[in-house]
Design a protein that fits this description.
Length: 690
Amino acid sequence: MATTRSRKPDLSLKAHLTAVKQGKRCFENAFQAVARMILAQPINKVVVNGRSTYDFEIFRTGGKHAIGMYDEINSFVSFVKDAAEGGSSKEMAYVLVGEPGNGKTFFVEYLCAKYRDFLSLPENRKYTFRFAGMDELGSYGKISTIESQTYEDPLILAMNLGETKSESMELLAKNYGFKDAQVEEFYENYRPLGACSAYMLDDLRKFTDGHLEDVLKHIEIIPVPLTESLGTVTGKYAAKDKITSSAVDLLGEESIQRLLHITDTNNPYRFDLRRGALARVAGGGIHFSDEIYKNKKDLVQVYLGVIQNRLIETDGYKWPIDTLIIATSNNAEFNRFLAEKEEAPIIDRCRICYFSHNTNYLMQKDLTNYAIGSETKTTLTGQDLHQDPNLNYAASVAVVLSRLPRSEKLTPIETMKLAAGEVAGEKSIKTLAEVIDILNQEPDITKRFGQKGLGHRNLGRAVQLLVEGTETNEGQCMFAYDIFHAVERVILDYVSDNNDRAKYLDDLKLAKTLYRERIMTEMFNAYMDEPQAIRKDVMNYVNMIIGIDAENLGPDKMWKYRDPQNGELKALKIDQRFIQSVEERLGLKTEEQRETFRTSIRKIYGQKISVNASYDFMDNLELVKAVTDVRLKSDIAGSGSLVGALANRTNEENQKLYDRMIDTMLNQLGYCKTCAQKTIEYFCTQEDEG
């Protein structure tokens, strides 16, 4: 049986340029590649906090993806697009400034991961070149093959093959068949060769007596490795302490090993640039400087030179780089740096983006899930820990409320609801937009909207405290209410500023209030033996006040209406007593107040249903609470209320009610026995701590 041998790939420059001409490979700088990666994916227009903005789908894909960050992502995309089009941004670094734990590092690392995936596609792959047979020259010892230290693109080499620009342009047109317009386009991204490549090319010219074809025999085109652990294409440099940090970590250093081989000490190849982080991403990559302003001053000055000149410079030798530089900084370090007047030039070379915490409690759900973790939690003895169905909600509102600055125009709960696109009584999204505009004029960054509060790491700590608690382990359940104790512990242990600590503890009290209201709804659903029972009652109230003045309303008070979800005709009896009871719970005492409220409900209904046929008013917490109170405070099981029936189970009827509710909670509402019993117990106390 004949064996087939794999065909050796053509590593010639000509083969590479032919592939570029055919569209199989591309030539673009780092900014252009990142911009193309982002803009090639769908872009949606959304409204956030009363303002329209863009949502880029590339950042919303994958198991763990970016949540919210609309302003920050739009700012970054605008920056990269401007740089890709040759704007001033190409001479700047992009710096994300914000509080610890707000997602800065995650965003950059997510971007880098997407970029590596993008470059792994054959048509997007980055290529570089190496010089082969260098040992034949006699001046490189036993060193045979030398790669471009900065992963220069083969087209950069092609644009420098001639001794003059015009000569090189002519070679591209005549020898490789590119049209004049294509050649001109290539030269928009022109860079001279780095010191090593230029020196070796000159050596090869001398060795071959200037015969280009013989020079090209020593040049091989190879793909740039996509090895994350080696820091190629995307690399991270985390700030070190002032003693151990060194420019060597960024720029590289002289290699004694190489000096043993090369005869000319003026040969720039004596410098090992890949010892530094910048060279490894210099061929169209992303360099991530984490906590850039924590570095000592001379290292920050190195960054200034690199950002400004787009060069690695050592001992007078220069290596141009093609790199998108992204950095992060905490507010404290950034403010400290700003105060030093002599550091103004580096700030001038940075595009600063103030990175806020997520302030949408509905979106926080996914972030909270990240904090809880995807794997099943276990007790210390290895038994599975159940997760209370209300845990995510309780944790989410607790941290989000801490991130919302106080305002005279809106209560914290109104702000929270509006930021999530929900109804907040008479207050509109326009009011929230005005509040945000005012806050974002503050010179103190930390006073701006969403800039200060409990971050993701604080939430992670709270979850850890919850899981390690004896009560949680013994009950084998992460009971939702216990997260408040854990968050309180984190506030007391990790928040040093007295004013911040006091505010966060007040926010925690509000979170407990919202949790209480949620539990009221859960209890009603359990009592009615139906997961969506309260929703039905809320919508019944809404439909009743819409139909109360209907022309087709008969003496039996039956009103027929068409369900917006399925178009079916439904009949509903107008229950004046129920309507009155709900409105009393809402504190509407006069006819004028009642009519004003009804008009607002009808208005909201008209606006929401036209956009979303399944809108159900469950985001109107006041209305949900009022309807719940009416049902739960009515005469139940002869005990005067559901609380009374559950708290006093001395008679058989009440015990049966309790058992039935427990059964519903276990089988329909996602509770386990522990959190079901604890939730009922909490419901019956009718009081919160603090």
